[in-house]
Amino acid sequence: MHEMSLAGGILRIVEDTARRERFGRVSTLRLAAGKLAGVELSALRFALEAVSPGTCLEGAALVIDEPPGQGWCMRCCCTVEINERGAPCPRCGSHQVQATGGDELKVVDMLVED
């Protein structure tokens, strides 16, 4: 389960930010995990809950946005929404679609307390 590794990386980002910005606790953490990121959201949520005890993330509300996948269709020359890599263009049916977005996993923001 690579989500545990991802959760560890997210925790490091949050703890580094807590040291740098001098806050004690995160009350809400908002992430963006794109539809094409290959992240199982329930597993990521579970992993974050597993690594948070004793850290500034303990008890934080977790909000995970899931931006849609985007691709550039080479046949109809437009940006289209796709749900998975290799999916055909929803406009023309071509499989010549290059993924261009929705593959990110990032910390968007956090609500913190002293």
Give Rg in angstroms. 17 Å
Low-confidence segments, given as residue ranges, are none
Compute the number of strand runs.
6
Structural class: alpha+beta
For this structure, the CATH topology is hypothetical protein PF0899 fold
Number of domains: 1
State the end-to-end distance: 33 Å
Average pLDDT, rounded to a whole number, is 96
The level 1 CATH classification is Alpha Beta
Enumerate how many helices there are, as a single number. Answer: 2
Order of helices and strands: HEHEEEEE
Question: Which helices and strands, and how do they pair?
Answer:
Layout: H1 2-21, E1 25-33, H2 41-51, E2 61-65, E3 69-73, E4 78-82, E5 97-101, E6 105-113
Tell me about this structure.
It is elongated and about 55 Å long. The two termini are 33 Å apart. The protein is built from 2 helices and 6 strands; from the N terminus they run αβαβββββ. The protein has a 3-stranded mixed beta sheet with strand order 2-1-6, covered by helices on one side. Strands 4-3-5 form a 3-stranded antiparallel beta sheet, with no helix packed on it. The protein has a single domain (2-113), classed as hypothetical protein PF0899 fold (2-Layer Sandwich). It is of the alpha+beta class. The chain has helices spanning 2-21, 41-51; strands at 25-33, 61-65, 69-73, 78-82, 97-101, 105-113. A hairpin with a 4-residue loop joins strand 3 and strand 4.
